[in-house]
Amino acid sequence: MTKAVWNVDKSHSSLEFTVKHMMISKVKGAFTDFEATIEADPNDLTDAKIEFSVNLNSIDTRNADRDNHLRSNDFFDIENHPKMTFVATEIKKTSDNEYDITGDLSIRGVTKPVTFEVEMEGVGKDPWGNDVAGFSGSTKINRKDFGLVWNAALETGGVLVGEDVKINIEIEAHQQA
Asked: What is the C-alpha to C-alpha distance for residues 85 and 111, in angstroms, rounded to an integer?
Protein backbone atom coordinates (compact mmCIF):
# COMPACT_ATOMS: atom_id res chain seq x y z
CA MET A 1 0.00 0.00 0.00
CA THR A 2 0.99 3.60 -0.32
CA LYS A 3 0.61 6.45 2.13
CA ALA A 4 -3.04 7.50 2.41
CA VAL A 5 -5.41 9.39 4.71
CA TRP A 6 -7.29 7.19 7.18
CA ASN A 7 -10.47 8.19 9.04
CA VAL A 8 -11.13 6.79 12.51
CA ASP A 9 -14.34 4.79 12.83
CA LYS A 10 -15.41 5.85 16.33
CA SER A 11 -18.03 3.11 16.57
CA HIS A 12 -15.24 0.51 16.32
CA SER A 13 -12.54 2.41 18.24
CA SER A 14 -11.90 3.21 21.91
CA LEU A 15 -9.71 5.39 24.11
CA GLU A 16 -9.62 4.05 27.68
CA PHE A 17 -7.60 4.54 30.84
CA THR A 18 -7.00 2.78 34.16
CA VAL A 19 -5.83 4.29 37.47
CA LYS A 20 -5.45 2.89 40.98
CA HIS A 21 -8.16 3.75 43.50
CA MET A 22 -7.45 3.71 47.24
CA MET A 23 -4.21 1.85 46.44
CA ILE A 24 -6.10 -1.46 46.31
CA SER A 25 -8.28 -1.47 43.18
CA LYS A 26 -8.46 0.03 39.71
CA VAL A 27 -10.94 2.41 38.14
CA LYS A 28 -11.43 2.38 34.39
CA GLY A 29 -12.76 5.12 32.22
CA ALA A 30 -13.05 6.15 28.60
CA PHE A 31 -13.25 9.20 26.40
CA THR A 32 -16.07 8.84 23.90
CA ASP A 33 -15.36 11.88 21.70
CA PHE A 34 -12.01 12.00 19.90
CA GLU A 35 -10.66 12.73 16.45
CA ALA A 36 -7.51 11.71 14.63
CA THR A 37 -5.58 12.69 11.57
CA ILE A 38 -3.71 9.69 10.23
CA GLU A 39 -1.69 9.79 7.02
CA ALA A 40 0.09 6.47 6.70
CA ASP A 41 1.02 3.39 4.80
CA PRO A 42 -0.27 0.76 7.26
CA ASN A 43 2.46 -1.64 6.12
CA ASP A 44 5.15 0.82 7.27
CA LEU A 45 4.17 3.47 9.81
CA THR A 46 7.68 4.95 10.15
CA ASP A 47 6.85 8.07 8.08
CA ALA A 48 3.22 8.41 9.20
CA LYS A 49 1.62 11.65 10.33
CA ILE A 50 -0.51 10.98 13.42
CA GLU A 51 -2.42 13.55 15.47
CA PHE A 52 -5.13 13.01 18.09
CA SER A 53 -7.51 15.41 19.78
CA VAL A 54 -9.71 14.31 22.69
CA ASN A 55 -12.73 16.20 24.01
CA LEU A 56 -12.14 15.87 27.77
CA ASN A 57 -15.79 16.62 28.51
CA SER A 58 -16.56 13.19 27.03
CA ILE A 59 -14.98 11.38 30.00
CA ASP A 60 -17.03 8.43 31.22
CA THR A 61 -16.10 6.40 34.32
CA ARG A 62 -19.69 5.18 34.83
CA ASN A 63 -20.06 7.57 37.80
CA ALA A 64 -21.45 11.07 37.11
CA ASP A 65 -20.06 12.61 40.32
CA ARG A 66 -16.56 11.28 39.62
CA ASP A 67 -16.77 12.40 35.97
CA ASN A 68 -17.76 15.93 37.04
CA HIS A 69 -14.90 15.99 39.57
CA LEU A 70 -12.47 14.94 36.82
CA ARG A 71 -13.78 17.76 34.60
CA SER A 72 -13.22 20.32 37.39
CA ASN A 73 -10.17 22.44 38.19
CA ASP A 74 -8.98 19.67 40.57
CA PHE A 75 -8.13 17.56 37.50
CA PHE A 76 -8.60 18.43 33.80
CA ASP A 77 -10.00 21.97 34.26
CA ILE A 78 -11.98 21.56 31.04
CA GLU A 79 -13.29 25.12 31.23
CA ASN A 80 -9.74 26.33 30.46
CA HIS A 81 -8.33 23.18 28.83
CA PRO A 82 -11.13 21.36 26.97
CA LYS A 83 -8.85 19.17 24.82
CA MET A 84 -6.09 16.63 25.27
CA THR A 85 -3.86 16.30 22.19
CA PHE A 86 -1.13 14.03 20.90
CA VAL A 87 1.12 14.76 17.92
CA ALA A 88 3.57 12.07 16.81
CA THR A 89 7.16 13.28 16.45
CA GLU A 90 9.07 10.01 15.94
CA ILE A 91 8.05 6.51 14.88
CA LYS A 92 10.38 3.53 15.27
CA LYS A 93 9.62 0.07 13.96
CA THR A 94 10.37 -2.49 16.71
CA SER A 95 9.20 -5.67 14.90
CA ASP A 96 7.24 -6.67 11.80
CA ASN A 97 3.99 -5.11 13.04
CA GLU A 98 5.02 -3.20 16.19
CA TYR A 99 6.12 0.39 16.60
CA ASP A 100 7.14 2.86 19.29
CA ILE A 101 5.28 6.06 18.47
CA THR A 102 6.68 9.00 20.42
CA GLY A 103 4.95 12.34 20.43
CA ASP A 104 3.93 15.41 22.36
CA LEU A 105 1.02 14.75 24.72
CA SER A 106 -0.69 17.92 25.96
CA ILE A 107 -2.99 17.89 28.99
CA ARG A 108 -4.06 20.91 31.00
CA GLY A 109 -1.59 23.20 29.20
CA VAL A 110 1.39 20.93 29.89
CA THR A 111 3.15 19.18 26.99
CA LYS A 112 5.47 16.22 27.56
CA PRO A 113 6.91 13.52 25.31
CA VAL A 114 5.14 10.16 25.61
CA THR A 115 5.75 6.89 23.78
CA PHE A 116 2.94 4.55 22.81
CA GLU A 117 3.70 0.93 22.01
CA VAL A 118 1.54 0.32 18.93
CA GLU A 119 0.68 -2.87 17.12
CA MET A 120 -0.56 -2.81 13.55
CA GLU A 121 -3.36 -5.38 13.82
CA GLY A 122 -3.88 -5.76 10.08
CA VAL A 123 -5.50 -4.43 6.93
CA GLY A 124 -8.53 -5.83 5.16
CA LYS A 125 -11.59 -5.01 3.10
CA ASP A 126 -14.99 -4.33 4.60
CA PRO A 127 -18.11 -5.86 3.00
CA TRP A 128 -18.34 -2.83 0.65
CA GLY A 129 -14.75 -3.19 -0.64
CA ASN A 130 -13.20 -0.36 1.39
CA ASP A 131 -9.73 -0.66 2.93
CA VAL A 132 -9.81 -0.91 6.73
CA ALA A 133 -6.85 -0.96 9.15
CA GLY A 134 -6.65 -1.82 12.84
CA PHE A 135 -4.21 -0.47 15.44
CA SER A 136 -3.77 -1.12 19.17
CA GLY A 137 -1.64 1.03 21.44
CA SER A 138 -0.78 1.60 25.07
CA THR A 139 1.33 3.78 27.31
CA LYS A 140 1.64 4.76 30.95
CA ILE A 141 1.97 8.33 32.23
CA ASN A 142 2.33 9.94 35.62
CA ARG A 143 -0.67 12.25 35.92
CA LYS A 144 1.26 14.68 38.16
CA ASP A 145 3.64 15.39 35.25
CA PHE A 146 0.65 17.01 33.52
CA GLY A 147 -0.58 19.11 36.46
CA LEU A 148 -3.21 16.58 37.62
CA VAL A 149 -2.08 16.71 41.24
CA TRP A 150 -5.28 16.56 43.33
CA ASN A 151 -5.44 13.76 45.86
CA ALA A 152 -6.78 12.88 49.30
CA ALA A 153 -4.98 11.06 52.08
CA LEU A 154 -6.57 7.87 53.36
CA GLU A 155 -7.13 7.23 57.05
CA THR A 156 -5.37 3.88 56.69
CA GLY A 157 -2.38 5.43 54.88
CA GLY A 158 -1.78 6.06 51.23
CA VAL A 159 -3.85 8.14 48.85
CA LEU A 160 -7.19 7.99 47.08
CA VAL A 161 -5.94 8.28 43.47
CA GLY A 162 -2.83 6.63 42.05
CA GLU A 163 -0.26 8.62 40.08
CA ASP A 164 0.24 6.19 37.18
CA VAL A 165 -2.40 6.18 34.46
CA LYS A 166 -2.44 3.44 31.85
CA ILE A 167 -3.85 4.54 28.49
CA ASN A 168 -5.12 2.03 25.93
CA ILE A 169 -6.29 2.85 22.45
CA GLU A 170 -7.96 0.64 19.85
CA ILE A 171 -8.42 2.17 16.40
CA GLU A 172 -10.27 0.97 13.35
CA ALA A 173 -9.55 3.32 10.47
CA HIS A 174 -11.02 3.45 6.98
CA GLN A 175 -9.00 4.67 4.04
CA GLN A 176 -10.40 7.96 2.78
CA ALA A 177 -11.77 7.65 -0.74
From this structure: 9
- Whose CA is closest to 59, among 75, 41, 45, 47? 75
Positive or negative, the CA dihedral 36, 39, 40, 45 is negative
- Are 37 and 50 a contacting pair, CB within 8 Å? yes
Report the predicted TM-score, pTM, of the whole model to 2 decimal places.
0.89
Check whether 84 has a pLDDT greater than 80. yes
With 70 as the cut, is the pLDDT of residue 7 above it?
yes
CA end-to-end span of the chain, whole Å? Answer: 14
